[in-house]
């Protein structure tokens, strides 16, 4: 049975565990969790998902088939140093840490199969938009199982490592941008008299409907937008404000800053 150890047990680890256990891809008895200090969080994960808390670090790490690295970039070096002595040669490392390169992980853990994944927290509902890259030590035969594992939490694209920076900016951080939009549209609608429940439901359904239209893929977003925008109508009036406030520039600046930060984090914690 495949044994998976999560080193780092925060928001992202939980979202992945939620997805994996919900889809019954792997039995919770085979999923182990450990973190730096927060015992309450480990107990919570055990209670909620029935996963195992690592008691014997050495045993858990030595026997692991897959180790997920799920700590913040600033904690990566310390974590990698503490793991290094216990790994067996065949263990596959899957890092979800933003910015930290395969080379930096290799520098601490030695040459071994390493994949980097950029998921997002929608993994919790099986809707992560994940991208993965790997080093050449990941055997051909292991690629599909890794993709299948990740597909249990959503969609997966295989990308070049260099592209993970922009992927992180777009889909790793993406849910937060959409939640920000949700907050703002909701507040604006409430200001104009709608109640909170209706405002939220109407916005969610609008996002969902627009997503479905985009997903059909037969009409470009620009054309879909035109179909909503009657000349001299309400949409035009609204869009004019978005353009006047340079929302397009804000979005370019947002993606640029996020992908830059991913590069910076990689450099900052390079070993
Ligand atoms: N939250 C998100 O939406 C996404 C996060 N990520 C990446 O996932 C990683 C984790 O992010 P979050 O879960 O949001 O952070 P978090 O702060 O919620 O969780 C971090 C976990 O790492 C543990 N930790 C810290 N130092 C450790 C050490 N030396 N050994 C073992 N465990 C240690 C902490 O105790 C905590 O359980 C980050 O690198 C982030 O870039 C990637 C995609 C999306
Ligand atoms: O904000 C962050 O750094 C992480 C990576 C992508 C989403 N959250």
TrEMBL record:
It is found in: Cytoplasm. Keywords: Amino-acid biosynthesis, Cytoplasm, NADP, Oxidoreductase, Proline biosynthesis. NADP(+) binds at residues 70-73. Gene3D superfamilies: NAD(P)-binding Rossmann-like Domain (3.40.50.720), ProC C-terminal domain-like (1.10.3730.10). HAMAP family: P5C_reductase. Catalyzes the reduction of 1-pyrroline-5-carboxylate (PCA) to L-proline. This is Pyrroline-5-carboxylate reductase. It comes from Psychrobacillus psychrodurans.
